[in-house]
Write a structure and sequence with these properties.
single chain; 220 residues; alpha+beta; five-stranded antiparallel sheet; 5 helices; 8 strands; elongated
Length: 220
């Protein structure tokens, strides 16, 4: 009886040790997984932030360069659309060839109409305030605006710079960058594959056929 009792206690102790070690192994594995997941999240978040910030810096600098080193402000104030297009045409071709995702360069007037689209110079004088909340905000706040917005032709990441001529607000310079630019840049930095999803309500004017949807966001 005593021998059987010792064997039972040894078996019970062995089972207890196995249970404890199993818990420890699970805890270590879960901690490692959580750490890996957090590391992935932090890496991705930092990469997105750095990519967006560097893009904003580059294109706000470009906007200021255009406004300070060309006759853009003066020509816009004088309503000389064709002269402005001629002055910037070769530069626009260079900039858009360096970054093919740099899709839009648009001058708005203070009255909310399009003065010149470098990407579509044949389309102008159309009223934008009813369609473009960022243009409306620009005319009200007259300060740098950054964000995603769907316009007449596409959904893009926009950097909009106010234009002042001799102290008078005369409009703004609107840059639009295809959001896939950020997906590609993040892949370059992190080697993580990405995809672009856009909320359905923002795809009324610009939508590609898609059958993949997550929480009202559709793959584009």
């Amino acid at each position: 009886f005593f021998k059987n009792r010792i064997l039972f206690m040894a078996l019970l102790l062995t089972m207890l040790l196995i249970f404890v070690f199993s818990i420890l192994i699970y805890t270590v594995q879960k901690t490692n997984f959580d750490n890996t997941k957090n590391e992935f999240r932090n890496t991705l978040s930092n990469s997105i932030g750095q990519t967006i910030n560097s893009t904003i810096d580059a294109y706000t600098t470009l906007a200021q360069t255009i406004l300070e080193t060309t006759n853009a402000k003066k020509l816009m104030k004088e309503g000389k659309r064709e002269e402005l297009y001629s002055e910037l045409k070769s530069k626009w071709k260079t900039w858009s060839s360096i970054n093919p995702d740099f899709k839009i360069m648009l001058f708005h007037k203070a009255d909310g109409t399009a003065f010149l689209r470098m990407h579509k110079p044949e389309v102008y004088n159309d009223y934008l305030l009813d369609l473009r909340p960022m243009v409306k905000s620009m005319n009200k706040e007259k300060k740098l605006l950054i964000g995603y917005e769907t316009g007449k032709y596409s959904t893009v990441f926009r950097i909009i710079t106010p234009i002042f001529y001799q102290g008078e607000y005369i409009g703004s310079l609107d840059f639009g960058i295809n959001p896939n630019y950020f997906v590609k840049k993040i892949e370059e930095f992190t080697k993580y594959k990405g995809a672009l999803f856009i909320k359905n309500e923002n795809l009324k004017l610009f939508k590609r056929e898609s059958t993949f949807e997550v929480d009202d966001y559709e793959l584009q």
